[in-house]
Amino acid sequence: LEALEAGTLRVATGSAGIAQNSQILGHTVRIWNIHVKTGQVNCMHQVANDHEGPIRDIALVHSNLATCSNDGTVRLRSTETGTSISTLVFLQQQHPPMLLSVIPLEGSGVAASAEDGHVVVWNLEDGDPQILLHPACVWKVLALPNGDLATCCDDGVLRIFTKATDRMAPIAEREQFAQKVQEAHQKKSNGPTPEEIAKLPLWEHNTSRPGSSEGQVHVFNKGGIAIAAQWS
Fold first, then answer.
1. CA distance 107 to 201
2. Of 47, 93, 43, 44, the residue nearest 73 (C-alpha)
3. Half-sphere exposure of residue 58, counting CA atoms within 13 Å on the CB side?
4. Residue 7's pLDDT is what?
5. Residue 208 vs residues 118, 215, 218, 220: alpha-carbon distances, Å
6. Which pLDDT score is estimated for 1?
7. Which helix H or strand E contains 159, and what residues bound it?
8. What pLDDT was estimated at residue 67?
């Protein structure tokens, strides 16, 4: 976060928590003081379980600390104590997408990327989010020095978004991207095809595919229907 007195740093960390009785608990923001010369480390403050899921990323956003989570929200926090000040939400639904990364943007902007292909840009002055939809999971979003925004997507493509008219891609390329996004999300809404279901392991063999961790999900073919099972 910042250098304090000579030889001392303040550092913030976030954790994903641990599995307990099919729930993930203990996801915590911690504020540390670290003495560089002696190596002494003190946890000064900690805030646990104010997200409703594991913390995926933590960043210094303007004058606040920001965390994003599996619960689909970004929380803005005090840099001194980690206490939540406000919450940014872009989808009001029962099962929001997991937010995987959060960064500051120039001015008063904040951006976050989601596992369902959403990239969300908030302006903290008016709170209205802008959505940049992608065809697949967006693992990371990054602010570039010239004010542009870079995203890395699970389809293997790194994309750059800009507000500068002289750097915009040709209309045909933008239309092609919009069509790819529409087709990808239409496919998701329709569910897997019979061919995709046929490639899944058979439900009768589920006992031979134990999970490697609590809560891991496997998908099986049960009589031509895709069935998800959670390991416990």
1. 50
2. 93
3. 21
4. 83
5. 35, 17, 12, 12
6. 77
7. strand 158-161
8. 98
At 225 the three-state DSSP class reads strand
Confidence band of 127 (pLDDT split at 50, 70, 90): low
Q: Whole-angstrom distance between the N-terminal and C-terminal Cα of the chain?
A: 38
Q: d(Cα 200, Cα 222) in Å, to the nearest integer?
A: 9
Angle among Cα 162, 153, 116 to the nearest 5 degrees reads 105
76-106 confidence digits (pLDDT tens): 999 999 999 999 998 877 788 999 999 999 8
Segments in the chain forming alpha helices (H): 171-190, 194-198
Q: Which residues partner with 112 through β-bridges? A: 102, 120
pLDDT in tens, 164-187: 999 999 999 999 999 999 999 888
Cβ neighbours around 51 below 10 Å, total: 27
**CA–CA distances in Å: residue 29 to residues 62, 70, 98, 133, 171:** 18, 15, 18, 29, 44
